[in-house]
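Anyone have tokens for tRNA (guanine-N(1)-)-methyltransferase? Sequence:
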Amino acid sequence: MRFDIITLFPELFAPFLASGVTRRAYSSDQVAVRLWNPRDYAQGNYRRVDDRPFGGGPGMVMMIEPLQACLDAIRADRAEDPAEQVPLVLFSPIGRKLDHPAVERWAQSPGAILLCGRYEGIDQRFIDTHVNAQISLGDFVLSGGEIAAMALLDAVTRLQPGVLNDEGSHQLDSFNPSLNGLLDCPHYTRPEVWQGQEVPPVLMSGHHAQIERWRRDQSLEITARHRPDLLAQARDSGHLTRKDEAVLAKIADGL
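Reply: yep, here.
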């Protein structure tokens, strides 16, 4: 799997690629990451990559020529068959919001070229010609696409075999199919008592069936309180049991 990142600020990625549990995947090229700066492909003494927008208005717009030259270099370096080229992804407010099912699909893919916009945006002609998909992290605006690119990379990389210390760890994450798309339950560790607050006794019981039921009930309650939309999706998909519904009925009485 390989991700090529087009960014005017490649230095932002250095600590990200060298830190945390996912660094093993990047250092071993299990998830290969290549950084490409359009400024390296710009012409003139000033290596200009942006210009004022036609029609006036504030800010600057990223120019086509440096982006095109940069993309051509990436495609050549990847030596792809034209019929099997990986998609070019732009992080944009109009993109589809990134969610767990999308992350799982990307985790099974050969990778992509990630385009991190800056300033007021990118010349629309480049987008119309080359961009295959657009992704948004949510209904807010960032200074550039770099943070969004890191978010996608991190989410995809941690799903790769051998990246996490415990292979089953991500199976219990919020939104995971093993939780039927619900939020994860609370977690506890030592000490058993902290400032008068005790770990729930069931977790100390050693009774695995009761522990699993407690965790499921907690997941249902947290989702009902904080993300009822996810609960509705789980119900519509037929993922809730009669026992789940009975638990939810009691929770609803207390809300």
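DSSP finds nine helices and ten strands in the chain.
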